[in-house]
Write a structure and sequence with these properties.
Order of helices and strands of chain A: EEHHHHHHHHHHHEHEHEHEEEHEEEEEH
Oligomer: heterotrimer
Number of helices of chain B: 19
Chains: A alpha/beta (about 425), B alpha/beta (about 525), C alpha/beta (about 300)
Number of strands of chain B: 11
Distance between the termini of chain B: 36 Å
Shape of chain B: globular
GO molecular function (chain C): guanyl-nucleotide exchange factor activity; translation initiation factor activity
CATH topology of the domain at 267-395 and 479-512 in chain B: Rossmann fold
Strand order of the largest sheet of chain B: 3-2-1-4-7-10-11
Number of helices of chain A: 16
CATH class of the domain at 267-395 and 479-512 in chain B: Alpha Beta
Structural class of chain A: alpha/beta
InterPro entries (chain C): eIF2B_alpha/beta/delta, elF-2B_alpha_N, IF-2B-related, IF_2B-like_C, NagB/RpiA_transferase-like
Organism (chain C): Eeniella nana
Pfam families (chain C): IF-2B (PF01008)
Structural class of chain B: alpha/beta
Protein name (chain C): Translation initiation factor eIF2B subunit alpha
Chain lengths: ~425, ~525, ~300
């Protein structure tokens, strides 16, 4: 049974779904199409992120996957719609605009706390907005504060409360002054432009990452990838195959990604890449023959660790034991400014029926089964990150994150 | 398994008394007929001579014959190759080993190469097809117990070093009991070579385990030591008794001693990690729970394609004192992270002389992960599994499984790959429109489909015809090698020792077996 | 021109430390330098620089444990220089500095609170934490965690030898007063308990450019043990303890840290005159929890680079 109803808040339509497990993705999408008015139909993806019950992650992901490589492009796209149309309260001032995005962020994060990319994109947008605001205020009030490094915080000259308030007043004065006139429009167009660039960036992630293939793979190399679900990895390998001849070992990631693995292997084999499927247990046995381990990530954290498919942490650990380099390919939008304090809270748990099907009825109910879908790979297991803006060592990730997000936006709530 | 049982009852009905060795004339007379029928009747005659207590179905025996054949046939679709192969397998007569015969054998081997695709780096490992073609043509003198055992082993019905070794010795008991020394030779001389034939055949199922090798070496030595004064009957009785003794001493009592040693590590509320299935570990956990009345938790880690952990889980789940957790190997890091595991117990296929543990593939991964979390890794291993081989990695020495076992979504869907091929063929013959079927679907998991149901695959079919993709390989190896630095302790019936002491045990106790 | 005899910078520094037990060495050094500025009233900028330079040198050489002190002095120097060069209104800046001595202390405390807020995420229910020696930052972090009802246990090391300061015992007592259960262990027992520990928290006297730390004697061996047991080691330190040093090994610590090792057959000779601190290289440290957030070792060098080159 599917219940679909629409809810409108602040210019974004949210579709709340009550999805039955047995429902196939295709049917679901069709149902959505049927239930949603045309206008809303292309907006439904973000709505899904906002409304779907957390436990049905797989279905959600498949939905997202069926339309693209991850949730983020949709979020970015969908954000643009309310902004373009200037719906609802968006006529208001910049800080209200920020508040709106943060509210959206809160909802999205709450709906799917383990889907980081959506939040990341929102943070990027926020950073764009804040950048724009600080630029305009900076130009308005010429007396810019001395550029002090954070270490001087102890000593920096006065930024007392009084003065702070003064500045605030100033800023609101500027805002008030500009209210309803050109500045608002400038801000909006700048932000829309920023989002457009963001979308372009995401669209070209694969090409940009693939440019680095030549530097990373040598002829006749044996690569192992334990993340057969990753589009980025697939693209990377396909691009690489144009210039290099190599062998790819793929773990099955049973039971989570087994189908993806087969599809992945098929695509590689069709591109005439020598492809070997291995069971997850065989990683250690073959590791001594592997030149490099290539993984995709779902999210990369400020400490250089990443969340990825279940089983990858063990594979990377194994690579480390064999001194085999591990490199991660991930688009910039996967980099999250948060710190993975609690490993277990990052990990989504899946359907244990895949591990112990009802065919094993004598075990079901007697054995406790956990099926994590994700795994956390600590930074020490990873040698480099290959992103669309270049390669980095894991302990430099904090800098990438600082460059792209504002610290005040790390938490939405 | 339940499906087998239904068939077993049927097979009992068909029991007929016959000679131990299928009469050659039967085969001879049929040799001119359609090859397919030949094999059928041959297997039938073999199943008939089979004793009822052998829990082997008619069908399975048939399958055994088919197994070897069908794999080849899958490759050599043309009928002419079939013909050649049948002549290969049929005889057991030396005169068959002519130059043209060997050439044919080579021919068929060549064709197989196109079909059985071994991943790069693993080309040196022997496939089952190679084993079969390499083995001498002796099927007609193979004892039915060995036939049955070979089938069970090759379909992973009997799996695990201990179980295989034990059932092999049991089968040898049958062989020895029904053996009669031909004229002009003595039991000491001829029985060994007779056994060698059996062993050769046994090898076609799967390569011998280290423990089997050790047991065979022991048995051959015993045979050579049988006093020349004894008559055949007495000699045979003595050997059978000694085999019984050997099983008791080397497996049963050893296990008991190991359980006693290892149980000291398991306390109330202990959390134990283990991988796949090991006979001695299953006994150990049962012993601790039932006899010592300890309450503890077991985390079973399991993996494709054999899912042996389920076997362990089935043994342990009904026991009240044990709380069972079942996980696949890709959740290993989560298991270690979340639960405070106290000990990691691992079973062994073999302990090599350089301290490495040769065991079910995945063991090394578990041992490594446990070691890195400072969880002591203990290996329980009977000394019969100790080997004087040295190995450095898992690539050079290993055993290849069937690649298709990994593609079938329901691995080991009770019907082996080859049987399915055969059944497909049957189905093809029945329906005149000879449409080829793919073997992967779970609808076939019980043997009822021998009633020629059409097969429709509903499962993942992305790679159902993966062999069409020239650059795609599927690697299914059965073992891996765990370096000694991951292993804290090896518990044997001779005491607990560090992995570096394996050669010491080999030196000290070699003579005793 | 030298510092005039009527003002003893060392005395001022020690007085600050004595008067306020909450004050850390870098802050005390800054306060002392400010007091000096207040008294000396340099008229030109070159005079100011010389004055500060001399005072810093004097302070560094006269105090035995100068690492975290020099972090404070260096930062102050850089700040003064930067303000002199970049901005014309040094006067107002100086005025601010001289007048707000108390403010710095407050800010130093604030940064401890900020660290506590960052660091609390690292402490989970049912954790067993190992702390080494006495550290105000670690203390405030644990206190904050306790106040937020996180339930955890602490192993505190005795932190010997410490020349009668009883740092470890002091730490244990303060923790117990906060209602945190503590098990005080001798330093030699760390290896014995390390498997029961979930994470290690350490303060630092100074954080070197590589991200390694200079801390109370025994930190290095705890770091090695923790690394061996795969336990995370978190260093809790304010950013004003980042110091421009790059020691490679214990011998690279400044000589005044006293690494005199005497081999003797003299039966009366007891314990060797031991140094008070050792150096823990960055590979033994999982992360730095500072008021700038959770930092990786390379972030430390970035902060230092930003301060020193531009």
């Amino acid at each position: 049974m599917v219940h679909v109803y629409l809810e409108t808040i602040e210019g974004v339509n949210n579709v709340h779904l009550n999805v039955d497990d047995s429902l196939s993705t295709r049917v679901l999408v069709e149902l959505l199409r049927e239930h949603l008015p045309d206008k809303v139909a292309d907006r439904s993806i973000i709505a899904l992120v906002g409304g779907i019950p957390v436990t049905h992650y797989q279905t959600l992901r498949e939905l997202l996957d069926s339309g693209g490589n991850s949730g983020s492009p949709f979020v970015a796209l969908q954000l643009r719609i309310p902004i373009c149309k200037g719906e609802g309260k968006l006529q208001g001032r910049a800080d209200e605009f920020i508040a709106l995005i943060r509210r959206i962020g809160q909802r999205i994060v709450k709906a799917q706390p383990r889907e980081f990319t959506a939040g990341n994109i929102l943070r990027r947008v926020l950073a764009i907005v804040r950048e724009e605001i600080s630029d305009s205020t900076a130009s308005a009030s010429a007396n810019s504060a001395p550029v002090n490094t954070a270490m001087f915080r102890l000593l920096v000259a006065p930024l007392d409360k009084e003065e702070e308030e003064q500045r605030k007043k100033e800023r609101s004065a500027i805002d008030a002054e500009n209210d309803g006139n050109s500045h608002k429009d400038v801000l909006r167009s700048v932000v829309i432009q920023g989002i457009r660039e963001l979308i372009d960036e995401i669209d070209s992630v694969h090409e940009n990452i693939a440019q680095m293939t030549v530097d990373l793979i040598h002829d006749n190399e044996v690569l192992l990838t334990p993340t057969p679900g990753s589009e980025t990895v697939l693209n990377f390998l396909l691009k690489a195959s144009l210039k290099r001849k190599f062998t790819v070992l793929i773990t099955e990631n049973y039971p989570n990604d087994i189908e993806l693995c087969h599809r992945f292997a098929k695509k590689l084999a069709e591109a005439e890449i020598e492809t070997v499927i291995i069971p997850d247990s065989t990683v250690f046995a073959v590791m001594s023959r592997v030149g490099k381990v290539l993984i995709g990530a779902r999210a990369v954290f400020a400490n250089g660790g990443c969340v990825t498919a279940a089983g990858v942490a063990t594979a990377c650990e194994c690579a480390k034991e064999h001194r085999t380099p591990v490199f991660t390919v991930a688009g910039l939008y996967k980099f999250s400014p948060s710190y993975p304090f609690d490993r277990n809270s990052l990990i989504e748990v899946g359907n244990s029926g895949k591990v112990l099907p009802y065919a094993d009825s004598d075990l079901v109910g007697k054995c406790e089964v956990t099926t994590p879908i994700f795994d956390y790979v600590p930074p020490e297991y990873i040698d480099i990150y290959i992103t669309n803006i270049g390669g980095f060592s894991p302990n430099f990730v904090y800098r990438i994150v600082l460059d792209n997000y504002r610290t005040e936006d790390v938490e939405f709530s | 398994m339940s499906d087998d049982e239904t068939d077993d009852t049927k097979s009992i009905n068909v029991v007929a008394k016959n000679d131990v060795v299928p009469s050659r004339s039967t085969i001879e007379s049929e040799s001119t007929r359609n090859t397919e029928e030949t094999i059928q009747s041959k297997t039938q005659s073999q199943s008939q001579i089979q004793q009822p207590e052998k829990t082997l179905s008619n069908k399975e025996l048939k399958a055994l014959k088919k197994k070897a054949k069908a794999a080849k046939r899958a490759a050599a679709k043309a009928a002419m190759y079939d013909e050649g192969e049948v002549s290969n397998r049929q005889g057991g007569r030396p005169k068959r080993n002519t130059a043209s015969h060997i050439k044919k054998q080579l021919n068929s081997a060549k064709i197989k190469d196109n079909d059985v695709r071994i991943p790069p780096m693993f080309g040196h490992l022997e496939t089952r097809e190679e084993r079969i073609s390499a083995s001498p043509v002796i099927a007609s003198i193979v004892h039915p117990s060995i036939l049955a055992l070979t089938l069970k082993i090759s379909t992973y019905k009997i799996v695990g070093s201990t179980a295989r070794c034990k059932s092999m010795l049991e089968a040898f008991k049958d062989v020895i009991s029904s053996y009669s020394t031909p004229q002009g030779t003595s039991l000491q001389r001829n029985l060994t070579s007779h056994l060698s034939h059996q062993i050769e055949y046994l090898k076609t199922g799967r390569p011998l385990s280290i423990s089997m090798g050790n047991a065979i070496r022991w048995l051959k030595q015993r045979i050579s030591l049988v006093s020349i004064d004894l008559n055949d009957e007495a000699g045979k009785r003595m050997l059978v008794d000694e085999i019984d003794e050997f099983i008791k001493e080397k497996i049963l009592y050893s296990d008991r001693v190991i359980e006693e040693y290892a149980s000291k590590h398991i306390e109330n509320n202990s959390k134990i990690l283990t991988y796949a299935h090991s006979h001695v570990l299953a006994e150990l956990f049962k012993y601790c729970a039932l006899e010592q009345d300890k309450h503890f938790e077991i985390y079973i880690v399991d993996s494709k394609p054999l899912f042996e952990g389920k076997k362990l889980a089935k043994k342990l789940a009904p026991i009240e004192n044990i709380k069972c957790h079942y996980n696949l190997i890709n959740s290993l890091s989560s298991v270690l992270e979340k639960s405070n595991i106290d000990f990691c117990f691992l079973g062994a296929h073999s302990m090599l002389s350089n301290g490495r543990l040769y065991s079910r593939v995945g063991t090394a991964l578990v041992a490594m992960a446990a070691k890195n979390k400072n969880i002591p890794v203990l290996v329980c291993c009977e000394s019969i599994k100790f080997s004087d081989k040295v190995q450095l990695d898992s690539v050079t020495l290993n055993e290849l499984g069937d690649s298709d076992d990994l593609i079938n979504t329901e691995p080991f869907n009770k019907v082996g790959f080859n049987l399915q091929q055969y059944l497909n063929k049957l189905a093809r013959e029945k329906e005149e429109n000879g449409q080829s079927h793919n073997q992967n679907n779970k609808g076939q998991q019980n043997q009822k489909h021998s009633k020629h149901q059409t097969i429709d695959s509903e499962e993942d079919t992305v790679l159902s015809n993966w062999k069409d993709l020239k650059t795609l390989y599927i690697l299914n190896i059965l073992y891996d090698l765990t370096p000694p630095e991951y292993i804290q302790k090896v518990i044997t019936e001779l005491g607990a020792l560090p992995p570096s002491s394996v050669p010491v045990i080999l030196r000290e106790y070699k003579g005793l077996t | 021109m030298s510092v005039s005899p009527k003002f003893d910078i060392k005395e001022a520094y020690l007085k600050f430390l004595r008067d306020d037990p909450e004050m850390t060495m870098p802050v005390a050094a800054i306060e002392a330098l400010l007091t000096m500025l207040k008294i000396q009233q340099p008229s030109t900028s070159s005079e100011l620089i010389r004055l500060l330079d001399d005072a810093t040198k004097q302070l560094k050489s006269s105090v035995s444990n100068a690492i975290s002190l020099s972090a404070g002095c260096d930062m102050f120097m850089r700040f003064v220089l930067r303000n002199l060069h970049l901005y014309s209104d040094w006067e107002s800046c100086k005025k601010h500095l001289v007048e707000n001595g108390q403010l710095f202390l407050q800010r130093a405390k604030d940064s401890r609170n900020r660290i506590a807020k960052v660091g609390i995420n690292f402490i989970n229910d049912d954790d067993t934490i190992l702390v080494h020696s006495y550290s105000r930052v670690v203390l405030s972090l644990l206190e904050y965690a306790k106040s937020r009802f996180v339930r955890f246990r602490v192993f505190a090391t005795e932190a010997c030898p410490d020349k009668g300061e009883n740092n470890g015992i002091k730490m244990a007592r303060l923790l117990k007063k906060m209602g945190i259960s503590v098990c005080l262990i001798p330093d030699s027992q760390v290896g014995f308990v390390i498997n029961k520990v979930d994470k290690v928290f350490m303060g630092a006297e100074g954080v070197s450019e590589s991200g390694g730390i200079i801390n109370h004697m025994g930190s290095f061996q705890i770091g090695v043990l923790a690394k061996n047991a795969n336990k995370p080691v978190y260093v809790v330190a304010e950013s004003h303890k980042f110091v421009r040093m790059f020691p490679l090994a214990q011998d690279d610590l400044p000589p005044e840290m006293g690494t005199k090792l005497i081999f003797t057959t003299d039966l009366d000779e007891g314990l060797v005159d031991h140094p008070n601190v050792d150096f823990t290289p960055h590979q033994y440290i999982t992360a730095l929890i500072s008021d700038l957030g959770v930092l990786t070792p390379s972030a430390v060098s970035e902060e230092l680079i930003k301060m020193w080159y531009d």
